[in-house]
TrEMBL record:
Belongs to the glycosyl hydrolase 43 family. It comes from the Eukaryota. It comes from Collybiopsis confluens. This is CBM6 domain-containing protein. Residues 342-464 form the CBM6 domain. The keyword Hydrolase applies. The keyword Signal applies.
Length: 467
């Protein structure tokens, strides 16, 4: 059997990254995989704080709420944990702490407060008490408690002091978020009543508790909720309930948090299941925005990756994800740039072994290469490189409900494994990234050699120079 250098999606360093690559393994400045799932962002001065669930133990049980800092949203340094387990409480290592939430704020030296009303981050700043307040889903290992938890701190990363867990207004709360409006009022967004009904409730002025319910969407079955307020319109973005598997995330709009809320609309092509992701956090970027989702891998939660895409609003006032394999942000200008690359069609490659040419209108050019792996290969010759590690996006179809994988070898080098989650159907195309060392000039890339399992059908690859 061939010796493989195994990377999950793309485990080649993304330290000091100037670009965002959805689905790639993202490393911090110490070279470790970023563990901040169910993300949220807080800005204090020129520093962004990313909070989330540390899943390094591949478990649903609580390990830590992590805290990372950045000034550019691409290069992140890990700080001390924001919240750590306490034995004998609802945040012990035998319990569940998920989706530590709040809403994005721009804070200057903890005093002068400019609010940018957006969705769920773990922490909000309370000007009355001059403290940071964290809300999270607090539960038992069998998800039977269905509570919210609250913790406070005097600095953004804490450490936070756990205040307690409870059922808001006596009702279930599982997946939840916090929305802070531009008048300083904060709201809990939560899946309630055994995930059947979705509720919005007002917090007290300390942000410690819930005082009254302001809206209910009966039978909505929503989770992973968050709100972005743009031009006076509340955009509620959420998924439906399908466990760890993704589904088409939706947006609902209203001019009041009390509703009425519009009918649901997809934020991405429904067949892609939001590009195999679940909403975690959304923020405004000038007149546009950023969608931040999780691509959960339920059998290896610590290997779950982050799906960050630009968001744009149409003339009808609805947000839509911009699918970009590689992209960058200009925070000062409030803009984003999607990188362009060079496409190479799989059907133009050299087929080997049991590989077969497939015809279907869903493929670019109407063709792709199937039966890869288990003896089938495809070779791309004359792939132009610039003499460094470059991002390569693989466009594929995987109609299975389970993940597949493929291998790639550059110029006779070792095989790198690239994970391929379900694309949503055999006629649905998705992309996954891998970083490959390419020499300047012509290169040869071989896909699916040395693997016993079948890979997804390969439509094309796109090679990028932006790094």
């Amino acid at each position: 059997m061939a010796t493989w250098l195994i990377y999950v999606l793309s485990a080649i360093a993304l330290v000091h990254a100037a670009v965002i690559v959805p689905g790639a393994t993202w490393l911090d400045t110490s070279g470790n995989v970023i563990q901040a799932h169910g993300a949220g962002i807080l800005k204090v001065g020129s520093t962004y704080y990313w909070f989330g669930e540390d899943k390094v133990l591949d478990s649903t049980l609580f390990h830590a709420v992590s805290c990372y800092t950045s000034t550019d949203l691409t290069t992140w340094a890990r700080q001390s944990n924001a919240l750590s387990p306490i034995s004998g409480t609802m945040i012990s290592t035998s319990n569940v702490v998920e989706r530590p939430k709040g809403t994005i704020q721009n804070l200057q030296a903890h005093q002068s407060l400019t609010l940018a009303p957006c969705l769920r981050l773990p922490v909000i700043f309370n000007t009355k008490n001059q403290e940071y307040v964290m809300w999270f889903h607090s539960d038992t290992s069998n998800y039977g408690a269905a509570m919210v938890g609250v913790a406070t701190a005097t600095t953004p990363c804490g450490p936070f002091t756990y205040k307690g867990s409870f059922k808001p207004l006596g009702a279930d709360s599982r997946d939840e978020g916090i929305f802070l409006d531009d008048n300083g009022s904060a709201y809990l967004l939560y899946a309630s009543d055994n995930n059947q009904n979705f509720k919005i409730s007002l917090l007290d002025t300390n942000y410690y508790n819930v005082t009254q319910q302001v809206s209910i969407m009966n039978g909505a079955t929503l989770e992973a909720p968050g709100i972005v307020k743009r031009n006076g319109v509340y955009n509620l973005i959420a998924s439906h309930t399908s466990g760890w598997d993704p589904n088409p995330n939706k947006v609902f709009t209203a001019t009041s948090l009390a509703g009425p809320w519009s009918a649901q609309v997809d934020i991405a092509p429904s067949t892609t299941n939001t590009y195999y992701s679940q909403n975690a956090f959304d923020m405004l970027l000038g007149t546009n925005g950023i969608y931040m989702g999780d691509r959960w891998k339920s059998d290896q939660l610590g290997s779950s990756t982050y799906i960050w895409y630009p968001l744009t609003w149409s003339s009808s006032g609805l947000p839509t994800i911009v699918h970009a394999d590689v992209w960058s942000v200009n925070l000062a200008a409030g803009t984003f740039t999607a990188a362009t690359g060079t496409s190479y069609e799989a059907e133009s490659g050299t087929l080997g072994g049991s590989a077969e040419l497939l015809s279907d209108s869903s493929f670019s050019g109407g063709k792709a290469v199937g039966f890869l792996g288990n003896g089938g290969t495809v070779t791309f010759n004359n792939v132009v490189g610039i003499g460094q590690a470059q991002w390569v996006s693989l466009y594929y179809a995987n109609g299975d409900s389970t993940w597949r994988n493929t291998t790639v070898s550059a110029n006779g080098g070792a095989n790198v494994i690239v994970q391929q989650p379900s694309s949503g159907g055999g006629h649905v195309i998705q992309s996954v990234p891998v970083k490959v060392n390419l020499k300047s000039g012509a290169n040869t890339l071989v896909f699916s050699s040395g693997q016993a399992s079948f890979a997804g059908d390969l439509d094309k690859i796109i090679v990028y120079t932006a790094t």
